[in-house]
Write a structure and sequence with these properties.
330 residues; 8 strands
Length: 330
């Protein structure tokens, strides 16, 4: 397997100011062999505030087991409220990642017409954004873009953020647009309004117990797909709250190495910078970092829910792979 991390941009191209040396990256999990494989580009969630480590490599492993090559995107996020809203930088990151995969399709033995994107929560919003906005003018100046080269052939959306209406996850939209976004800006990122003939087939799943991103988000998007006769498959599971990822034991112990995970490095840099400037101390402890993030629970294992519940949710992976096999061979 080819496993490497690739910068999406040159330093000159990347203009979002994080106050750190962060660069958006594409991590590859490319299967060996001579035959061309289907591929899935995975987009973790995190409220456009970070990239969740529980929705990256673990998900990639599931698709690898099914014989597909996989990629994980680490995209631009607004790690602290003092940063500027990320605006269109995340969708530009995702577009550039798709372009890179297609540019290397022959070398990586990937079928360029069988590339799906798979996003969770705010990453689901980002995936759905590309599914409905891939042909917009603001993406046409990206290096390497050619006609259709950033278009996903299918989209997989897990408990996605979709609407800015009654069931909105406001934190995601604040980090995306800022707290003073105009109605026109909000309308553009309320993705049910942008579904059209250009939208690829979609697989959606959500849970009834999700109190962070209500299940209505998936239902609203499914309704828009139906109105526009876009093929889709929707699964709504009764159990488990937000962020259930692969819904197995690996997912539920995701917090063990939070402070050292790749997706947490930008958090660490920002936190160290702000804490040392505020205190005058040259170093900070892990305890101070966790307190700064206001997420102390992520360092500890959480008790597993009823196995019947999370194993029931885990069926989405099998259902999704079956759907992809049908979708890519119709």
């Amino acid at each position: 397997m080819l496993n490497e991390r690739i910068n999406l941009w040159t330093r000159e191209e990347y203009t979002y100011d994080t106050g750190t040396d962060f660069m958006p990256t594409l991590t590859t999990y490319i299967l060996d062999g001579l035959n061309k494989k289907d591929a899935v580009l995975i987009i973790p969630g995190g409220g456009y505030k970070g990239c969740s480590s529980s929705e990256g490599e673990g998900v990639a492993m599931k698709f690898l087991e099914a014989g597909m090559s996989a990629f994980v995107l680490t995209y631009t996020t607004r790690m602290r409220p003092t940063m500027q809203p990320v605006q269109k930088q995340p969708i530009r990151d995702l577009s550039r990642a798709m372009i890179i995969i297609r540019e290397h399709a022959e070398q990586w033995r990937i079928n360029p017409d069988h590339i799906a994107i798979c996003g969770f929560s705010a990453g689901g919003h980002l995936a759905a954004s590309l599914a409905v906005h891939w042909n917009r003018d603001f993406l046409q100046d990206i290096r390497g873009i050619q006609e259709y080269s950033n278009k996903p052939n299918a989209a997989i959306l897990g408990y996605p953020v979709i609407t800015t209406g009654e069931f909105a996850h406001l934190g995601s939209f604040y980090n995306l647009l800022g707290e003073d976004a105009s109605q026109d800006q909000l309308a553009e990122v309320s993705l049910e309004h942008s579904v059209g003939p250009h939208t690829p087939p979609v697989f959606l799943w959500h849970t009834v117990e999700d109190l962070t991103v209500p299940v209505e988000n998936a239902m609203i998007f499914a309704s828009a797909l139906r109105k526009n006769t876009i093929p889709f498959e929707l699964h709504i599971f009764p159990f488990i709250g937000h962020g259930s990822s692969t819904s197995d034991e690996t997912w539920y112990t995701r917090g063990q190495d939070y402070l050292n995970s790749d997706s947490a490095q930008l958090y660490r840099q920002v936190a160290v910078k702000e804490l040392t400037e505020a205190s005058g101390k040259p170093t900070v402890s892990d305890a101070e970092l966790l307190d700064f993030f206001n997420e102390p629970a992520v360092k500890y294992k959480k008790p597993l829910p009823d196995p019947m519940n999370y194993n029931h949710n885990a069926k989405w992976v099998k259902l999704c792979i079956e759907w992809l096999n049908i979708t890519f061979r119709e």
